[in-house]
Design a protein that fits this description.
TIM Barrel; 3 domains; 8-stranded mixed sheet; 16 helices
Length: about 450
Amino acid sequence: MTVKDYGEGLSSPDRSRRLAAVRAAGEAAARGEIEAATGGEVNNHIHTTYSFSPYSPSHAAFMAWTSGLAAAGSIDHDSISAAEEMTQACAALGIGSTVGTELRVNFSGTPLEGRKFNNPDTENNAYIVIHGVPHQKIGEVKKFLEPINRARNLRNRKEVETLNMLLAGTGVEVLDFDRDVVSLSQARDGGSITERHILYALCAKILEKTRKGAVLVEFVEQNLGLGLTEKLRSLLLDESNPHYIYDLLGVLKGGFVPRFFIQPDETECVSVFEAVDFANSIGAIPAYSYLGDVEESPTGDKKAERFEDAFLEDLFPLVKEIGFKAVAYMPPRNTPEQLARVKNLCGRYDFMEISGVDINSSRQSFNCPELLFPEYAHLIDNTWALIAHEHLASRDIRYALFSPDNPLSGKTLSERIRRYSRVGRETDWHHPESIFEKIEFLEGK
């Protein structure tokens, strides 16, 4: 069986139907009717429909499982509403799960205020991830994110108004925020709305006017004034391209967004101190997201640009002082030289290293073979430690990996990660609650 056999259920607007579909897949596997590949890979950073993605949480878990991943994590922009479903879906399939949220913070009041960190759209604002949220704290995260999303949606509406002025004279129908943008999101169920939602709605309007192929390419180049590489032009000329709208979206994100983008304020991009203090207070793991200078974007939606590489030696001690516990990075996005430098700095400042590849397009593979290279094997170990941290802390907050009350708080970070990683690997993830049977090993008794 393939995803097509479960597709309608996995993409249903009804959460109970989605979970029923993924449970049916797990039951079929238990009967020997499906055999998912097992390659040992993991991915902690899969976006779902609760921010922007073609995949519901159940569908994301299913795709991770059928791609051979041993563990999967949902990370949505300004939302954690996928968490419960993702956890249940992964359990149905017997793979490890982890949940969190990605948000933007401002670095005002720090020695690096005003710098361009890892956000292509703004200076002074940076993406961070709150990883490994204990499940009893999910409600607190939702409350923390509520004012952020209110501010974001006020800005989203203004951006659509600006975009509509740009569309005047192009023959493209203007967008209605509620009808065309909100309807694409899970905003009414705790999801966020991003620029990608606006762009997806715009793509649909453009396709209504031009259809696929040469006419669309001419519209993009002539009416919107966007240059296309030969690769992108070829993709948009191919009317049978199954990822067509996502490829068009990538073109618009790379070149058109700056024309209608409005800078977020500090209600939407909260203080880095506030966000990190909050994450630590709930036993989660706040991680700075390293991007590094971009020469060529692997996802096609970022132009060549300089980010934090020029001041990494100043950034790492600063984020350590602020209270970050980890640095997140994505091996496929960076050069070996960039990755070696980040690994060295993580070791120097005793940061947990967390990896994942953000999935938000149907074109992207769920696999990240780079994680199987010997030099990155520790990232898989760290994923299992992250998963064990989250599930143990969900039963008893003392077992949060960085809790001062953790029975292993006197051990080095590397030793804690080693023990937590083994617990994560050895747990039967069809039954996540069984992880508490590993406590004696964890404590070395």
